[in-house]
Amino acid sequence: MNRSVKQIFLAILFSSSMFIPLSTFGHHSAVVFDRSKTMEISGKVTKFVMRSPHSSINIEVDDNGNKVTWPIEGGASGAMIRKGFDRNTVKVGDTLTVVINPMKTGAPGGLMRGLILADGESFGVDIEDYTPEAAPVVEETRPAREIPSLTAY
User: Fold this and answer.
1) Distance (Å) of CA 133 to CA 37, 83, 130, 136, 152
2) What global pTM score does this model have?
């Protein structure tokens, strides 16, 4: 290939790569969450972030008189918006209930399956009819490793 054809090819390749969204390279797995279990936690919102690719809510839960912060990773912001959820739905200081898949380690935290506001409005689940998705059981063949969550901003 002569030099000018090679330069044109590289310029086209580089230019076309600018149209690939960066989020394509940034997706991660929900492997740290136990998708076979579901639980509800209630508490006060201490932090709320809604941005791509996922939202994040920190909830202060009263655990027998001790305040424990539960970092909750939410769904994709675009999907939440389509369900009527927006940046003004949850505010720091609000009390709410969140349905989550808990952390496999048992540590406070989880993957949000749905939430219920103090006024009873819910997003993502109807608690009376909710049945958790069963995840396939995968036997660990290598040592467990800690994977950071998006909630550690």
Assistant:
1) 8, 19, 9, 10, 26
2) 0.63
Beta-bridged to residue 100, according to DSSP, are 39, 112
Structural element, H or E, at residue 75: strand 66-76
- Phi/psi region, residue 48 (left: phi>0; alpha: psi -120 to 50; beta: rest), is beta
Give the mean pLDDT per block of 10 residues along the chain (153 residues): 72 65 54 86 92 85 90 81 82 93 91 88 61 43 49 47
* Tokens, residue 105: 């380690």
With left for phi above 0 and alpha for psi between -120 and 50, is residue 96 left, alpha or beta?
Answer: beta
Q: Tell me which H or E stretch contains 46.
A: strand 39-50
